[in-house]
Amino acid sequence: MTYKLEICANSVQSCIEAQKGGAYRVELCAAIPEGGTTPSYGDIAVARELLNETKLFVIIRPRGGDFLYSELEHKIMLKDIEMCRQLGVDGVVIGCLTPDGDVDMPRCGELIGAAGEMDVTFHRAFDKCSDPFKSLEDIISLGCSRILTSGQQPKAEQGVELLKKLVKKAGSRIIIMPGSGINEDNIIKIALETGAVEFHLSAREAVESKMKFKNSAVSMGGTNITINEFEQLITSAEKVKNTLNILNSK
C-alpha cells in the first residue's frame, strides 16, 4: 500500500518544510483561521520556484464563509486559476455550492475547464453538502481527482463512518482524502477504519516571534478570530517525516 500525505501549507516556509519531510503534495492557502483562501501571487510564484519534489496545489477561494459565490467572485476565481496555470502550478482546489447545498455543476465545470491540464481537488465545501452521496456522484462526473473531506464532521476522526462509506462507494473512480484534525496519533486508526490512502494534515508547530518589543494591547485582527500575533504556526518537517514513518510502518 502506497500512502500519500498532503500538507495544508499556510506559507511558503511551510511548503519548504513539507518537502523536507517527504510530503507528496502541499495545498497552499492563506487565511487558515477562515478555512483557507487563495494565497498571493508572490506566495504561489516563490513556492513554485522552490518545490521540485513535492507537488504544488493552490486553493481557489476568494473569501471565508460559505461556498455560494457571486458572479464577481466567480470571475475572481477564474482569474486566480489562470494565474496558477501561468505559474506552472500542479493543481487547484475548488468547490462551489448552490443555495440548497448541492454541488454547483455549471460553476464548478467552468473552474475545472479553466484549470486545463492541472489536477483538480474538490475541497471541504463537500462537508457542507446536503447529500454527500449525490454530491460524490456529481463531483465524479465533473472529473475531479479527489475530494477533501472530514466526513461532514468537525474532525476526520469523528467522520470515520461516512468516510468509510465514501471510500467504498467511490472505489477507483475518485480518491477520498480525509482531512481535519489528522496527526501522528490518529492517522493509523483513520487509515485502517476508512481504507483511505491519501491524507490531508497541517503538521504545524508554533515558532516564537523574534520581536523584542511586543505591544500586546493592540491587535491587527478582529475580535471574532483570535490569534497569537507573536508566534507563527509553521509546518514541521520532522512531524511530516514522523507521520509518514508511522503510516508506512503499520
Helices and strands in order:
Blueprint: E1 4-9, H1 12-21, E2 25-28, H2 41-50, E3 55-59, H3 71-87, E4 91-94, H4 105-115, E5 119-122, H5 132-142, E6 146-149, H6 160-170, E7 175-178, H7 187-194, E8 198-201, E9 204-208, E10 231-235, H8 237-248
Helix pairs in contact: 1-8, 3-4
Describe the structure in your own words.
The chain has 250 residues and is α/β, with parallel strands linked by helices. It has a single domain, classed as Copper homeostasis (CutC) domain (TIM Barrel, Alpha-Beta Barrel), CATH 3.20.20. Helix content is 36%, strand content 18%. The protein has an eight-stranded parallel β-sheet. A two-stranded antiparallel sheet has the order 9-10. The radius of gyration is 18 Å and the shape is globular.
Under CATH, the homologous superfamily reads: Copper homeostasis (CutC) domain
Q: What would you say the CATH architecture is?
A: Alpha-Beta Barrel
Stretches where pLDDT is under 50 for at least 5 consecutive residues are none
What's the helical proportion of residues? Answer: 25-40%
On the 0-100 scale, what is the average pLDDT? 95
CATH class: Alpha Beta
Distance, first to last CA:
10 Å
How many E strands? 10
Query: Rough shape?
Result: globular
**How are the strands of the biggest sheet laid out side by side?**
7-6-5-4-3-2-1-8
Topology-level CATH name: TIM Barrel
The largest pleated sheet is described as: 8 strands, parallel
Which strand-content bin applies to the residues?
15-25%
Number of helices: 8
Could you tell me the radius of gyration in angstroms? 18 Å
